[in-house]
Amino acid sequence: MYFLTGWPRRLLCPLRSEEEPFHIQPSSQRFYFAVLSETQLSVWFSRPSVLIVSYIESSKAATQFGFYQKAEWKPDDSMIAVATAKGYILLFDVLGGGDDKYLYEPVYPKGSPRVKVTPGYKEEQCAPALSLEMKKPVDLEAPITSLQSLQEDLLVCTADGYLHVLHWDGLGSNGRKAICLTTIPFSLDLQSARGGPSLDLEGVYIRCMEYCVTLDGYAVVLSDGRLGFITPLNNTITADQLQGVWAADVTDGTCVAVNNKYRLMAFGCASGSVLVYMIDSATGSMQISHKLELTPKHYPDIYNKTGPVKLICWSPDYSVVMVTWECGGLSLWSVFGAHLICTLGEDFAYRSDGTKKDPIKICSMSWGAEGYHLWAGILQFHFIKSALTVNPCTSNQEQVLLHGEDRLYLTCGDPSQVQGNSDPHTHLHPCDGSPMHPAPKHESSLSQGLSTLLGHKHWHVVQIHSTYLESNWPIRFAAIDTAGQCMAVAGRRGFAHYSLFTRKWKLFGNITQEQNMTVTGGLAWWNDFVVVACYNHIDNQEQLRLYQRSSNLDNAFASVTKLHSGTLLLNVFRDMVILFREDCSICLYSIERRNDGPNPSASVELLQEVSMSRYIPHPALVVSVTLTSVRTETGITLKAPQQACVAESIMLNLAGQLIMLQRDRSGPQVREKDSPANNKKLLPFCPPVVLAQCVEHVWTTCRSNRKKRYLLDALWLSCGEAGMKVWLPLFPRDHRKPHSFLSRRIMLPFHINIYPLAVLFEDALVLGATNETVLYDGLQGSAEPLEALFPYCTVERTSQIYLHHILRQLLVRNLGEHSCASLPYFPHVMELMVHVVLEEEATSREPIPDPLLPTVAKFITEFPLFLQTIVHCARKTEYALWNYLFAAVGNPKDLFEECLIAQDLDTAASYLIILQNMEVPAVSRQHATLLFNTALEQGKWDLCRHMIRFLKAIGSGEMETPPPTPTTQEPSSTEIFRNRSISLSQSADCITTGKFNLQKTFSMPAGPSAKGRDVECAENMYIDMMLWRHARHLLEQVRLRDLGCFSAQLGFELIGWLCRERNRVAHVDDFVSALKMLHKDFLWPFPVIPLGSLSSPLKNGRCRTVLSTRLLKSQSADSLLNSDMDTALLQADPTKLTWLDGLGQGAKDMDTASSAHSNQHSPQTHDAFLSLLTNKVEEYSIGSATDLTETSSVVDGDWTMVDENSSTLSLSQAELEHISMELANKGPHKSQVQLRYLLHVFMEAGCLEWCVVIGLILRDSNVIKQVISFLDSPEVPQETVQNVRSGLLAVDTWVSTDCLGYKPFLNMIQPQLQQLIDSASEQVLPESSQPTSQSSKLGGSEGLGGAAAPRPEDSRGAAAPLGLSLPSLEPAGGFPRPPSEDCPPEQTEEQGDEEGAYDCTLS
């Protein structure tokens, strides 16, 4: 509404004087202000703030009259009356200095268009030269208590109980009359006034008085503290024609101020509160409307120490009131009591070091022009205000527009964003590149989206053009278009508009045209036209004008409609303009765009006139007028759905009363179809109905959306201290026929914490603004200037959701509502609603007869996020209220089990914390075990780690027994779960909840007690048992990849466990199915043989060896893919290649590989390399966790028989095909690294059967050779040897029938197979002859059979013998550290940086 900005300024008087100015009184137009000191009267100009003239009383006269006390201007600014201490009224004539006498004139540079001015134009921007002349003083012979200026008279109240009426011009006896207060009859209302005076007014006088134009009477505060209202019974003020009413039960009144627009009287009291009264139109009695007072909640230190109210001052537009007290301080309220600003708290009252400031005591207070300034003593405070205060046509838009004295603040986002997101039907304008507005019929949502409206707290500030401002200050009206991209402002004369696209202002090219029009009824945007209600000074005529935005601002391009009466208010609804005029009539006009001429224009046609003079006592009382499609039937009874979108009703805010006029549809409706569309007769309006009281603003929209009809067909009201109200339509559920006795709409009140300035209808949000302060500690000490006592004020954007208030109100009335569930923050709304209801009911001292919480709980069970909502609310609520909450929503154990069924483990973890506090440790452990096992099964490693910590904590804190869960459950909670089906499809992955900490604080004994250690041991054993069980389960199901991740993520000692399980669960029952499972698990392709392999040139041994050389030289077949033909590493003798060389190349490749992953892991990657272990006998790399790359080259002796001269041969097409086939037979690099690592783990643990299976999938002959060589060792049980033999034979059989791609590899390891079979004591199985015969068929000359050349990196990973001592791995038995390399993708995502950051402890 009104917001403080910046620091206050201080008035510096240029005249040297010992006297301090103490009273400032503005003229009626507020262009001049009179400043009083004890013997001096000065007149200042308001913009620029300069002293024009000063009158200094002589010491002799000062002795005769006494010091100056108060001043009052004549309404036409031609005279000033000054009241003095000894009962004199001094009248001064304010004389102008002639036509061309100016005290200050603006200086323009040469060639400026502003020099060619019209006659009479110059004075608007110059400070005139004035002089003051004192007339004969009037002696009233008693101290003067109050001055009140009327049109021709001056009312003066004196301390002897008289009311003097002085004529401004006539002096002497015939120019004045005195009325004694005791002759005025006072009563409680006008009906009981006939019985003569009812108040004893002997010795009482009027302490303070103010005239109210719209009530036609005087609000008075009597010297005994009583409050009254005096009405003249006819136009003249004489004793027998005055009648008074007084307010009962008030005896401590101090001052009064009246609000002409809302017909209110604000009386200050000695208690510090302000009582706002209205006059009851039926009885004429004074009735209290509301109170303005500081609350102990917000101002606990000062609310009852303010002292009496000193001054009350309404703003020029009557939308806010400023109050100050005897002890000092300023406080601002809206007209119906919404508190906006107070300088008695926070940064206004305290310095940054916490010391209290003394509030500044204010002796006089008045507002400047249009309310942009407030004079408080000699300090001038600056305000920016909402455009709604004077131009309420912006109420059907979704932007917040504020205007200060010289700038506009708006909330819209970046125009380029809006342009990008704008409707596809929008076309760019040829002139300024801005999009022309889409056709109004097109129902596109013009709301800019939450991101642009709520993305930040900063304003878009537009400086008003200085050329326009200097001659037309102050700005009176401002408007913004629906898209939030164009603004228009109107000052004293003319108007100007601005586009965010071009960042340019458009002013009238012809200054005469600008100066010959005054905007009277406001301005609004219709598509790309500015609609202006103005007065034409040349023709002395009221007009309605439309100016096209892209044309030059000139009357030649305007569409002008003559009006019969002055316009007070203007608004636009779709293609209609509604005007409210001075004769209390409402006119509806239709606008139509015309594109026939060179410039687009608009034609305006009068549709309907509605006279309201019967209902409106004074035209100035109408605050706003708007057309809306809202009506009481909510469109259900309308046959044609499109009729619901037409202008159905007129909403009129009459001094805070919202009045609705609906169209009268009681008559025959046939004519609408029969008559042609162009001359359709509009329906008349029904008599008005009052919808609400104390209304400050109204919001409605002309858009429609069937999915959100509740929000778009509603009417939103701002009601001051009563918060907001919404008038909602009620639609029957499931399209049932509505009950005739049920109301079709409902008015719901709700409170919000911000002052509403705009409503986003679809998004169910209120936008507002709030004052923020920044403390600057200025000069410490006595020399600190006055203004430095105040902090620097800024205005910030705010927003608030209100849906939970409305849902709650509907639930109280048994009216549920589901249409808003699609909003992104709907879960938050539900949580807020549960929280607010729970806090109110659980902390209530009296029993609640009809509690709402069970109803709310039943309502939210209908939504999928019910379980999260409850647990989030519980964890944000104190423990004492949990019993009440879970008595209504259900037992937490049941809710925990529901989470497990719905696979929502994160939410289940939150319920576990609640169970831990509400149940005994045994129950917590039981549920934690359940959750731990489920988390293990689903691979939720973060959660698993927390569960391990949690289980240990439970074990340690077993001695503490929390209170049991409440057993008394209301029947409603059991019904909830009976009627509720749990959605199993709702996976935990799609739930965007934060991670939960399951740490419990517990007090351990100071010394290391044996009992504590035993408990800890038992707890660790319990956890280990669960981990072993899970590992066994994974191994039984041949889920090696999951087993590896499980080990790496939870630090499970896999090698140690496998050693123990070597002859139990760690042996392979079915080699073929295990091999198939590994292929599936690691996404490893089954090998294939090209069809032409039998006739391929590779049969030639020379080519084969060349190919192997090529592969060797390129380090790996993978590097063909990487185009990294780096052969520099290859030395003259390939056998001399060491593991270190391979590692160097590996590190380089690994950097490039890991750079694709997150960089945070790269330092750890380098740390993970183990130190080099060399074996003098054989040089090979240890197949350990450190082999992170496939490029380590370890060369077997069989590979070195290469013809040196053949290296110059180029590869043929067939060879390239063969290489590509070889690459196609290989799985992802990540899988290869993981398999190599697992191979190392199984080797270390001595699980030879698994080594054979992994060797087969990797097709690494060295692994098979090594395993078979180990089988001869006496340590290996005979059962294992037998198992390996039968397994390999089974694989051979399967390969021959189902997977011929493995045949070449089996042929390659044929000698080892044969050796295994021969070494057995049993008879050789007949199947073994099959591979032998096959290999001889392929041709023995090939040495190793017709197998494709094995890849060098496949043969490099031969594992260390069992006896070799390996360095310990980073997590014991875990996967190597960089998770981006070694963990499956689903786990990589879950590992964030925040591991170990879960420290918030629950007591």
Model description:
The protein is α+β, with helices and mostly antiparallel strands. 26% of the residues lie in helices and 24% in strands. Strands 1, 2, 31, 32, 33, 34, 35 and 36 form an 8-stranded antiparallel beta sheet that branches. Strands 7, 8, 9, 12 and 13 form a 5-stranded antiparallel beta sheet that branches. The two termini are 45 Å apart.
Task: Name the features.
single chain; 1403 residues; alpha+beta; eight-stranded antiparallel sheet; disordered C terminus
Based on CA inertia axes, which overall geometry fits? Answer: elongated
The major sheet is characterized as: 8 strands, antiparallel
- Share of helix among residues? 25-40%
Mean pLDDT: 77
Over the alpha carbons, how many angstroms does the gyration radius reach?
A: 45 Å
Q: What is the CA-CA span between the terminal residues?
A: 45 Å
- Contiguous helical run count: 37
Total number of beta strands: 59
Structural class: alpha+beta
Low-confidence stretches: 116-120, 414-428, 437-448, 634-644, 670-679, 959-1008, 1092-1209, 1323-1403
> Proportion of β residues?
15-25%
